[in-house]
Amino acid sequence: MLEVSHLCKAFRGFKAVEDVSFLLRAGTITGLIGPNGAGKTTLFDTLAGRYRPTSGEISFLGRRIDTAPPYRIFREGLVRTFQIPRPFPAMTVLENVMLVPAGQAGERFWNNWFSRRAVRMEEVACRAQALEILNFMDLSTLAGEFAGNLSGGQQKLLELARALMASPRLILLDEPGAGVNPTLLGTIMDKLREINARGVTLLIIEHNMDLIMTLCNPVLVMAQGRLLLEGTPAQVRSDARVLDAYLGGVPA
Ligand SMILES: Nc1ncnc2c1ncn2[C@@H]1O[C@H](COP(=O)(O)OP(=O)(O)O)[C@@H](O)[C@H]1O
Ligand SMILES: [Mg+2]
What we know:
Blueprint: E1 2-11, E2 14-24, E3 29-33, H1 40-47, E4 55-60, E5 63-64, H2 70-76, E6 78-80, H3 93-98, H4 111-114, H5 116-136, H6 152-165, E7 170-174, H7 182-197, E8 201-205, H8 209-215, E9 219-223, E10 226-231, H9 233-237, H10 240-246
Parallel strand pairs: 3-8, 3-9, 6-7, 7-8
Antiparallel strand pairs: 1-2, 1-4, 4-5, 9-10
Helix pairs in contact: 5-6
The structure holds adenosine-5'-diphosphate and magnesium ion.
């Protein structure tokens, strides 16, 4: 589904991502772990088109996307969530989900005068789909609430709901479990499993090892911009290099 080859992203000569290559198979849930500053978020930003790679190639569903703008990558079905959720706080939860589909008829000024019926029909369908997704995410009761009033964990669920509204093929999740209470974390894990079972491929950055070990296979490990290893959860857990990376490169 995704093929990353010798990817580099440097900031003024500082290599945040250096020579990273890996493959994501369709239908899998892949974990991405590594100490803070390893380059995980920068890798996501580069895959999603926020940054253009300094060098290297990215192919999604067989097509090169490494020079494509974010909106095009998004339209192809590669969608990401943010480490810190970014809803529109003064819009309701439902509105936040409804505005996801790109190119809605009502976005065109004149359509609201001359194609009112088409705009209306599309909005009805969009609302129905958004409500269905909110229901799936257990957020229906909060549909009319301002997004800014949600707890951190609920905002994480909303991030996921918004990603689903984009009919994604691949979702990049940046720390979906960070700052989430244990009950909600369980919910998020269940939802991720179910989303994957419906055919969506997932790549998950997460520090919570319980989530990584139960959901993800394979697991990729990054340290200092590089891919240190790829393996099964059991292989990664017992690899001395991984412990070493988390301890800051001190010889074990
Ligand atoms: N926009 C940027 N400009 C300069 N340096 C950056 C930028 N974004 C990230 N970095 C640096 O790149 C490294 C990797 O950061 P990041 O990708 O956020 O790591 P992680 O998500 O694994 O914690 C860090 O040293 C960070 O300071
Ligand atoms: Mg990060």
